[in-house]
Amino acid sequence: MTIYQKLLNIRKSVEYIQKTEKGNQGAMYVDPAVLVKKIRDKMDEHGVLLIPSLTESSIESIADPIKNNQNATSFLFKSGMQFTWIDAETGDKEVVSWFCTGKHLQDPAMAEGTALTYTERYFLLKFFQIPTSKDDPEYFESKTGEKITEEQLIQLREIVESKGYPLKGKTNVDVVLMAYATKRANVPTINDLPQSKFEMAKQAMSEIGEYKSK
Asked: Which terminal residue of the chain has fewer beta carbons within 10 Å of its beta carbon, N or C?
Protein backbone atom coordinates (compact mmCIF):
# COMPACT_ATOMS: atom_id res chain seq x y z
CA MET A 1 0.00 0.00 0.00
CA THR A 2 1.04 3.59 -0.55
CA ILE A 3 1.28 5.96 2.40
CA TYR A 4 -2.02 7.51 1.30
CA GLN A 5 -3.78 4.14 1.33
CA LYS A 6 -2.39 3.46 4.81
CA LEU A 7 -3.58 6.84 6.09
CA LEU A 8 -6.99 6.17 4.58
CA ASN A 9 -7.17 2.82 6.39
CA ILE A 10 -6.28 4.52 9.66
CA ARG A 11 -9.07 7.04 9.10
CA LYS A 12 -11.58 4.26 8.36
CA SER A 13 -10.70 2.52 11.62
CA VAL A 14 -11.80 5.42 13.85
CA GLU A 15 -15.39 6.28 12.97
CA TYR A 16 -16.31 8.30 16.07
CA ILE A 17 -15.00 9.37 19.48
CA GLN A 18 -17.20 10.48 22.33
CA LYS A 19 -16.43 13.68 24.25
CA THR A 20 -16.02 12.64 27.87
CA GLU A 21 -13.87 15.36 29.47
CA LYS A 22 -15.03 18.74 30.76
CA GLY A 23 -12.84 21.86 30.54
CA ASN A 24 -12.64 24.79 32.94
CA GLN A 25 -15.31 26.68 31.01
CA GLY A 26 -17.65 23.68 30.98
CA ALA A 27 -17.06 22.70 27.35
CA MET A 28 -16.75 18.97 26.65
CA TYR A 29 -13.76 17.58 24.77
CA VAL A 30 -12.20 14.29 23.69
CA ASP A 31 -9.82 12.59 26.12
CA PRO A 32 -6.39 13.07 24.43
CA ALA A 33 -5.07 9.73 25.72
CA VAL A 34 -8.02 7.84 24.20
CA LEU A 35 -7.59 9.60 20.86
CA VAL A 36 -3.83 9.07 20.62
CA LYS A 37 -4.14 5.40 21.66
CA LYS A 38 -6.75 4.67 18.98
CA ILE A 39 -4.70 6.37 16.26
CA ARG A 40 -1.29 5.08 17.36
CA ASP A 41 -2.43 1.45 17.48
CA LYS A 42 -3.44 1.70 13.81
CA MET A 43 -0.26 3.58 12.94
CA ASP A 44 1.79 0.75 14.45
CA GLU A 45 -0.28 -1.79 12.56
CA HIS A 46 0.40 -0.07 9.24
CA GLY A 47 3.99 0.97 9.94
CA VAL A 48 3.32 4.71 9.83
CA LEU A 49 5.22 7.34 11.84
CA LEU A 50 4.18 10.92 12.63
CA ILE A 51 6.94 13.46 13.31
CA PRO A 52 6.00 16.97 14.51
CA SER A 53 8.43 19.86 14.13
CA LEU A 54 8.33 23.56 15.02
CA THR A 55 9.29 26.43 12.71
CA GLU A 56 9.73 30.12 13.52
CA SER A 57 8.71 29.81 17.18
CA SER A 58 8.26 32.84 19.41
CA ILE A 59 7.21 33.56 22.97
CA GLU A 60 6.20 36.90 24.41
CA SER A 61 4.70 38.41 27.50
CA ILE A 62 1.28 39.92 26.90
CA ALA A 63 -1.21 41.85 28.98
CA ASP A 64 -3.75 39.39 30.35
CA PRO A 65 -5.82 41.09 33.09
CA ILE A 66 -7.85 38.94 35.45
CA LYS A 67 -10.53 39.80 38.00
CA ASN A 68 -8.14 40.24 40.93
CA ASN A 69 -5.24 41.72 38.98
CA GLN A 70 -5.83 44.08 36.10
CA ASN A 71 -2.07 44.30 35.50
CA ALA A 72 -1.55 40.56 35.11
CA THR A 73 0.47 39.25 32.19
CA SER A 74 0.78 35.84 30.52
CA PHE A 75 3.28 34.11 28.29
CA LEU A 76 2.05 33.54 24.75
CA PHE A 77 3.77 30.86 22.66
CA LYS A 78 3.31 30.78 18.87
CA SER A 79 4.91 28.64 16.22
CA GLY A 80 4.49 27.36 12.73
CA MET A 81 4.44 23.56 12.58
CA GLN A 82 4.91 20.68 10.24
CA PHE A 83 3.46 17.24 10.80
CA THR A 84 5.30 14.70 8.67
CA TRP A 85 3.73 11.30 8.00
CA ILE A 86 6.36 8.70 7.12
CA ASP A 87 5.87 5.20 5.75
CA ALA A 88 8.41 3.16 7.75
CA GLU A 89 8.53 0.50 5.02
CA THR A 90 9.20 2.72 2.00
CA GLY A 91 10.33 6.03 3.45
CA ASP A 92 7.57 7.88 1.60
CA LYS A 93 6.54 11.13 3.28
CA GLU A 94 3.59 13.48 3.40
CA VAL A 95 4.14 16.88 5.04
CA VAL A 96 1.23 18.87 6.47
CA SER A 97 1.72 22.51 7.46
CA TRP A 98 0.06 23.59 10.72
CA PHE A 99 0.17 26.25 13.42
CA CYS A 100 0.11 26.12 17.21
CA THR A 101 -0.34 28.60 20.01
CA GLY A 102 -0.69 28.39 23.77
CA LYS A 103 -0.85 30.68 26.80
CA HIS A 104 0.14 30.33 30.44
CA LEU A 105 0.04 32.80 33.29
CA GLN A 106 3.43 32.09 34.87
CA ASP A 107 5.56 29.58 32.95
CA PRO A 108 6.70 29.98 29.32
CA ALA A 109 7.48 26.25 29.14
CA MET A 110 3.88 25.50 30.12
CA ALA A 111 2.67 27.83 27.38
CA GLU A 112 4.61 25.76 24.84
CA GLY A 113 3.45 22.48 26.37
CA THR A 114 -0.17 23.62 26.27
CA ALA A 115 0.19 24.56 22.62
CA LEU A 116 1.72 21.22 21.64
CA THR A 117 -0.80 19.13 23.58
CA TYR A 118 -3.81 21.04 22.27
CA THR A 119 -2.46 21.06 18.72
CA GLU A 120 -1.72 17.33 18.61
CA ARG A 121 -5.32 16.53 19.60
CA TYR A 122 -6.89 18.82 17.06
CA PHE A 123 -4.48 17.94 14.27
CA LEU A 124 -5.39 14.26 14.56
CA LEU A 125 -9.12 15.00 14.80
CA LYS A 126 -9.12 17.35 11.81
CA PHE A 127 -6.65 15.44 9.63
CA PHE A 128 -8.64 12.22 9.94
CA GLN A 129 -11.99 14.10 10.07
CA ILE A 130 -13.13 12.16 13.12
CA PRO A 131 -16.67 13.05 14.29
CA THR A 132 -16.94 13.93 18.00
CA SER A 133 -19.99 14.53 20.16
CA LYS A 134 -21.27 14.18 23.72
CA ASP A 135 -23.57 11.36 22.55
CA ASP A 136 -22.67 7.81 23.46
CA PRO A 137 -21.50 5.79 20.42
CA GLU A 138 -24.75 3.83 20.06
CA TYR A 139 -26.93 6.93 20.08
CA PHE A 140 -24.58 8.72 17.66
CA GLU A 141 -24.79 5.77 15.30
CA SER A 142 -28.59 5.80 15.53
CA LYS A 143 -28.60 9.48 14.49
CA THR A 144 -26.08 9.28 11.67
CA GLY A 145 -25.93 5.67 10.46
CA GLU A 146 -27.94 4.12 7.64
CA LYS A 147 -31.27 2.83 8.95
CA ILE A 148 -32.84 -0.56 8.28
CA THR A 149 -34.88 -0.87 5.11
CA GLU A 150 -38.60 -1.51 4.82
CA GLU A 151 -37.84 -5.07 3.73
CA GLN A 152 -35.73 -5.66 6.84
CA LEU A 153 -38.47 -4.23 9.04
CA ILE A 154 -40.91 -6.67 7.45
CA GLN A 155 -38.53 -9.53 8.27
CA LEU A 156 -38.47 -8.51 11.93
CA ARG A 157 -42.25 -8.26 12.04
CA GLU A 158 -42.63 -11.70 10.45
CA ILE A 159 -40.31 -13.27 13.03
CA VAL A 160 -42.38 -11.80 15.86
CA GLU A 161 -45.63 -12.86 14.18
CA SER A 162 -44.28 -16.40 13.88
CA LYS A 163 -44.12 -16.49 17.67
CA GLY A 164 -47.87 -16.02 17.78
CA TYR A 165 -47.95 -12.31 18.63
CA PRO A 166 -51.09 -10.61 17.26
CA LEU A 167 -51.23 -7.57 15.00
CA LYS A 168 -53.55 -5.87 17.46
CA GLY A 169 -53.92 -5.95 21.21
CA LYS A 170 -52.02 -4.96 24.32
CA THR A 171 -48.91 -7.01 23.53
CA ASN A 172 -48.76 -7.03 19.77
CA VAL A 173 -45.99 -7.13 17.19
CA ASP A 174 -45.44 -3.38 17.23
CA VAL A 175 -45.22 -3.31 21.03
CA VAL A 176 -42.53 -6.01 20.99
CA LEU A 177 -40.50 -4.21 18.34
CA MET A 178 -40.83 -0.87 20.11
CA ALA A 179 -39.70 -2.39 23.41
CA TYR A 180 -36.62 -3.85 21.72
CA ALA A 181 -35.82 -0.51 20.04
CA THR A 182 -36.03 1.63 23.16
CA LYS A 183 -34.76 -0.76 25.83
CA ARG A 184 -32.09 -2.78 24.05
CA ALA A 185 -31.10 -0.97 20.87
CA ASN A 186 -31.25 2.52 22.44
CA VAL A 187 -33.11 4.10 19.51
CA PRO A 188 -36.44 6.01 19.52
CA THR A 189 -38.32 3.57 17.24
CA ILE A 190 -37.61 0.35 15.40
CA ASN A 191 -37.45 2.36 12.16
CA ASP A 192 -34.37 4.13 13.57
CA LEU A 193 -32.47 0.87 14.04
CA PRO A 194 -29.03 1.12 12.34
CA GLN A 195 -28.15 -1.35 9.62
CA SER A 196 -25.27 -2.58 11.76
CA LYS A 197 -27.73 -3.85 14.38
CA PHE A 198 -30.14 -5.62 12.07
CA GLU A 199 -28.68 -9.12 12.45
CA MET A 200 -28.56 -8.67 16.22
CA ALA A 201 -32.23 -7.66 16.20
CA LYS A 202 -33.15 -10.71 14.11
CA GLN A 203 -31.40 -12.95 16.61
CA ALA A 204 -33.13 -11.26 19.53
CA MET A 205 -36.56 -11.62 17.91
CA SER A 206 -35.88 -15.29 17.19
CA GLU A 207 -35.12 -15.88 20.86
CA ILE A 208 -38.29 -14.37 22.33
CA GLY A 209 -40.80 -16.80 23.81
CA GLU A 210 -44.05 -17.89 22.24
CA TYR A 211 -46.99 -15.51 22.75
CA LYS A 212 -49.31 -16.35 25.61
CA SER A 213 -52.54 -14.41 25.85
CA LYS A 214 -53.45 -13.02 29.26
From this structure: C
